[in-house]
Amino acid sequence: MSLHAPITFSFASTDVGRARLGRILTSHGGIDTPQFMPVGTQATVKALTPGDLRTAGAQMILGNTYHLNLRPTAERVARLGGLHRFMSWDGPILTDSGGFQVFSLAHLRRVDDDGATFTSHLDGSTHRLTPERAMEIQALLGSDIAMALDQLVDPGLPREQIVEAMERTHRWAERSLEARGRPDQAVFGIIQGGVDPSLRRMSATTISALPFDGIAIGGLSVGESKADMAATLNVVSDALGSDARPRYLMGVGSPVDFFAAVERGIDLFDCVLPTRVARTGQVWTDAGRLNLRNSAVQDDPGPIDPACACEACTNHSRAYLAHLFRARELLAYRLASVHNVTWTLELMRRLRESLTDGSFAPLRERVTAAFARTSAASGL
RNA sequence: GGGUAGGUUGAGCAGGUGGUGAGCUCCGCUGACUGUAGAUCAGCCGUCUUUCGACUGUGGGGGUUCGAUUCCCUCCCUGCCCA
């Protein structure tokens, strides 16, 4: 069997905790790590064009198996030349398997050992998602990295339910690998196990024993405390040891979370947060978060962030953005999203830089303090 | 000038035939959002009070009545019709 390596990895350990600095190469290009991937569930990062994403510095983006298969369907995307061509994004794409929808659309699906049956939120029709079908859909979409189907659950559930979902995820992981459809597509496995240290260790050992191209950590940032997330990452990091494959923390996240995770060896992140909060008027800056809908912003002639080089900060005032949001003008969503994605990717660039020049701790301190100061409850 | 329909908390409304009008939608204020059913959701939105709750409020004034948004008189304002 002579599969040409779909992606190659190169990581160098740094002296900051377990943080690693490296590069991942796919047939659609390379990405620097640690890296943040904007989420484009329905073949679009909401409110942004591929050009916007490029200018913002995006290297790899996400697409979604469940949503794209419901509409426009995987087969149609394949007929139209694959996801890259369909959405005009020529950089690397990672597709999520639909595992998150097993969680987020819990009331619209039924899970059994073989897979999950969904009632479509679009038209009520039923759709069967198995590990094999998830891999087939992702092969049709033609993403650079496919994710194994997993089952994540609320970490607050009784232990036996965490165990059941974890063991099911392990069985689905093996089936996903057996079903992998194309040699030029990498496949990542996903560690589950809630926030139980022994289960997380068991899951990390089980998943990393399989010939996946990368290891993902799922089931976090779903409501658990920051302390639980950090402790869980410690356990996983220990269990993975010197494993050289890329490590992807799914669904994270917030500016503060990046630091805690990178310090524990995470290479890849994805999250809807920067784009979602942007659409509701919240922007991120070096001074923390700012709600553009607050009444005082209406008279603020300055840019969102004077240090930011994005289109919104270069050409427009906070007052203008405040007006656009109040008037529900569509440009508000685009400009705020442009800024948050730009700022987040620039933060990741500075974070990478800090791993080599020793400024990781002070950078983290600055960002953490700024967001603690401007976040009423969550601290993000 | 005559007729007619109206006047309810920033706006627009609902309701109410003598027995507890603070209800809705906007607007506004604030918060939330972590592998996107999200340009969404939640709370507040007369005054005082953290809350409980208390008080005020149906165009103005007056009258009848134990009690008036309701019945009577009068005035003001708005729309429409007629002159």
Molecular structure report:
- With 380 residues, this protein is α/β, with parallel strands linked by helices.
- Helices cover 42% and strands 19% of the residues.
- The chain contains 15 helices and 16 strands.
- It has helices spanning 50-56, 65-70, 74-79, 83-87, 99-104, 131-141, 159-178, 197-208, 226-240, 255-262, 273-279, 311-315, 318-326, 330-357, 360-374, and strands at residues 8-13, 20-26, 29-33, 35-38, 61-64, 93-96, 109-112, 115-119, 126-129, 145-147, 186-191, 214-217, 247-249, 268-271, 282-285, 288-291.
- The chain has an eight-stranded parallel beta sheet. Strands 1-2-3 form a three-stranded antiparallel beta sheet.
- A hairpin with a 6-residue loop joins β8 (115-119) and β9.
- The longest helix has 28 residues, at 330-357.
- The chain is globular, with a radius of gyration of 20 Å.
- The relative contact order is 0.13.
- The mean pLDDT is 96.
- The chain binds one RNA strand of 83 nucleotides through α5, β14, α11 and α14.
**Number of alpha- plus pi-helical segments:** 15
Largest sheet: 8 strands, parallel
Strand content: 15-25%
How far apart, in Å, are the first and last alpha carbons? Answer: 46 Å
Structural class: alpha/beta
What general form does the structure show? globular
Going across the major beta sheet, what is the strand order? 4-14-13-12-11-10-6-5
Low-confidence stretches: none
Q: What integer value in Å does the Rg equal?
A: 20 Å
Number of E strands: 16
Share of helical residues: 40-55%
Mean pLDDT: 96
